[in-house]
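Late entry, written up from scratch paper. The run itself happened at the end of the previous shift, but nothing got recorded in the book at the time, so transcribing now.
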Amino acid sequence: MEKTTDIGKVMAALKKHLKLLLILPAIFLILSLVISFFVIQPRYSATTQVLVNQKESNNDMMAQQVQSNIQLVKTYSEIIKSPRILDEVSKKMNNKYSSKEISGMLNVSTQAESQIMNIKVEGKSKKDAVKVANTISKVFSDDASKIMNIDNVSTLSKAETAKKVAPKPLTNAIIGVFIGIVIALIIILIVELLDRRIKTEEDVQEILDLPVLGSIPDFDKNK
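Output as recorded:
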């Protein structure tokens, strides 16, 4: 019985503050869309792949070399992010981006037991993202033999185009609505907890713990 009463009170409180429950999510929805389309700068991502592979005719030597290459992939990943590579990339791009800026745009990832490294670059324009990604791949492939005395690095695939990764209006809109609902519920909860006025016979019995002997009806003055 108490659970039914509590649920009834919750529903009554929500119904009472229905406007707030609808207005706040709508406001946050509009704000999220405005921020997505007019505030957040678009960002684009381009990816190129580098293959670590030694050309060997002997099958036994090939198997050993593959395992060696896999173990060195993590080292190669760090070399790609090194100042030596990034400084050269910056020069080849006529210093449009500093090595520090390129480092912030760059993400190098590898898969377990794989000889392939994914070089992902995020930039403010599609053209720059593609160009930086391909330049990093080329510089690393060319310089790897000088740095580690190896010739087993080659570009597997070039970045042809870049895809938009930010902003995401739909995701931001959902988050905005959710935040609006949560804030509305918090406000309703605070208002209801702070409101200690006695409004019904049930409130008298619950708050004062006294029986209700009678009630005075609310007469309409117009009548």
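The helical segments are 2-16, 18-39, 59-80, 83-92, 99-105, 126-148, 169-194, 201-208.
(Scratch paper discarded after transcription.)
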